[in-house]
Amino acid sequence: MRHLLSTKDLSYDAALTVLDTADQMAAVGERSVKKLPALRGRTVVNLFFEDSTRTRISFETAAKRLSADVINFSAKGSSVSKGESLKDTAQTLAAMSADAVVIRHSASGSPQQLAESGWIDAPVVNAGDGTHEHPTQALLDAMTLRQHRARTEGRESTRGLDLEGMHVVIVGDVLHSRVARSDLWLFTTLGARVTFVAPPTLLPVGIADWPCRVVFSLDEALDPAPDAVMMLRVQRERMHAAFFPTAQEYAREWGLTPERVAALDDAGATTAIMHPGPMNRGLEISSAAADSPRSTVLDQVRNGVSVRMSVLYLLLSGDDLDPTSTPHPQER
Amino acid sequence: MTSYLIQGAQLLGEQTADILVEDGVIRRIGPDLAAAADGARVVDAAGLVALPGLVDIHTHLREPGREDAETVETGTRAAALGGYTAVFAMANSDPVADTAGVVEQVHELGRSAGWVDVRPVGAVTVGLKGERLSEIMAMAESRAGVRMFSDDGMCVHDPVLMRRALEYVKGFDGVVAQHAQEPRLTEGAQMNEGSVSAELGLTGWPAVAEEAVIARDVLLAEHVGSRVHICHLSTRGSVDIVRWAKQRGIDVTAEATPHHLLLTDERVRSFDPVFKVNPPLRTDEDVHALREAVADGTIDVIGTDHAPHPAEDKECEWSCAANGMTGLETALSVVQLSLVDTGLLTWRDVARITSETPARIGRLATQGRPLAEGEPANITLWDPAATTVVDPARHASKGRNSPYRGMELPGAVRATFFRGHPTVLDGALNTPVPTPAA
Ligand SMILES: [Zn+2]
């Protein structure tokens, strides 16, 4: 693995290596001195063409725990209106000898362009591009899912554990969600089944080719109860473009309401409630759901740092992630 | 004027003959004219296909206004190298070609460049804004003698305005060429809407946005008894609609670009903006429907939609990159690859779709003529056995945005005769025709 651009092309073995390494990194976070010397003297650039304080802080924390120097490069505003800034910025970073570039961009494909352009030679990590992919989010979600699996199955360790046989329901604005895409490719590579739930307006034309089940009713998707339900963030503005009539109707039909949480409780289900954040309480997720013991939202945040440490470590320490690369299911 | 003896050419890929070119016309055609051609310069055309000079019904020459992207001079050099002897220059320049002054300027630039006939296309609406008609008659009656009108780049989406334009140009046998794109359905559109756009997270440009406008416009043309031309038709559904309209007797002509006959939206997976074009690259199914439609006559002509852009407009994020590809210098190769080498078309058919019919649609009487004695000597000599690895850096166009970069394409232009003068000779640019008196 030279870059981390998507989960679509991440092999089973590479994904497990990232997750197992992330587990080791998590142990560092539990020590009083939360630092490893692994990347001392290396420079990681956080190149953010789109605001995301959470993701930036997560990458920054990860890099610093590995003793790397971090430069935050915020280029918001200069992005899509004047595109040559991507090239100029990349060449500037190359001239500054950046060892790795973490890029967040509102334009789908920008990380791949950066990696393949020849403008810069450093490894590129996609921290979310448009409505395309968000691979580290998917990895932290997978890490959270396998912790949940180990917990419910009474396993001591998650090492080498995949998601075989798990059923994950992902609810909401799949059309505009890079998280939904990255989650789908990674979860299915790791053996899970995925169900998408959304109003038909928020599902992309062409979804029939994806390796997932699609249903329009959340209640139908939650019966029988899945291993996890992931609520995607829904922007209120979508209703102005007629994707759905009102926030109230959305919350009623596709929100994780207190009643739906109670139904999971009544069924004795072990379903975890996940959300990539930031949450719109009262829209896609009720406070009853967000604050319930089922919620893994804070685990996800914690795992985000571990997964990003793992990715930076593996990319910069030069370890080959796929010595015995297993092809992606779609390519078999 | 020097006379030329073209020896041993295959006329439209059929019988072999010599062609004697004198004083801008085809003086004689026949076997072994060497004795009759004393003093003529001999052009060895053994193994070459002779076609009537190609006519591009859809070219963006960018001048005036975007001379950094292309000029009439560079664009028409590219055209000559591609085997063209005439191009229709689209109106989306800056200022827009919506007045007699601008179309006369473009026409004059083309005339003095001397590489091909430059036929300006007039804008249907002022500033391509789709709000009110431009002074169409003034452009028709100008020295440029405009017969084709188009807001290409923009769709004439207001149905009333489209109706009026279709009616208005009837007065002088003009034609409206529609860039069919329903604007609301394509807001922010980045690529064909389908399984690839779903995966890449790029906003989709649905086929229905093209098809709905074509359906409306063929019905409008029928209603007011006008002819209408559809630019760069790109979907299977559009083919079905045009086929239905023709069966119904509606006076519609349709155009396909070389790139829509060869490339698909799978190319977008590279996120290389060289593949960003409007209408977007579609699916394999669409490509095959288009090829069949050319073969059965539903699609009448090939138009390049040659759209040069400077590097900075393409070296950026996909979503902010400009739409368009260069095409003049590769068009006939792509036609050979997708239509001739596949057995769908003969060279006689190629002459029809790349020369005769485009000239007829644009009412350009001196072009697209048969290869016959007494006809204007607009002739392209094509070597179908050659192969070329496309290197945009070697193109005469200022645009380097060729989607075929690095591809090996069949065929090569060996010579282009424009009004009896070789603008291209031995596969290289020669000289323009001496400027005739105005
Ligand atoms: Zn157009």
Q: How many structural domains in the coordinates of chain A?
A: 2
| Oligomerization state | heterodimer
Tally of helical runs of chain B: 10
Determine the N-to-C terminus distance of chain A. 19 Å
CATH architecture of the largest domain in chain A: 3-Layer(aba) Sandwich
Strand order of the largest sheet of chain A: 7-6-5-8-9
Mean pLDDT across all residues of chain B, rounded?
97
CATH superfamily of the largest domain in chain B: Metal-dependent hydrolases
Question: Number of DSSP helices of chain A?
Answer: 11
List SSEs of chain B in N-to-C order.
EEEEEEHEHEHEHEEHEHEHEHEHHEEEE
**Helix vs. strand class of chain A:** alpha/beta
Please trace the helix and strand order of chain A, writing H or E for each element. HEHEHEHEHEHEEHEHHEHH
What share of the residues of chain B lie within helices? 25-40%
Q: Domains counted in the coordinates of chain B: how many?
A: 2
> CATH top level of the largest domain in chain A?
Alpha Beta
Envelope shape of chain A: globular
Low-confidence stretches of chain B: none
Write a short abstract of this structure.
The complex is a heterodimer of chains A (332) and B (438). Mean pLDDT of chain A is 91; it is low at 320-332. Chain A is α/β, with parallel strands linked by helices and 332 residues long.
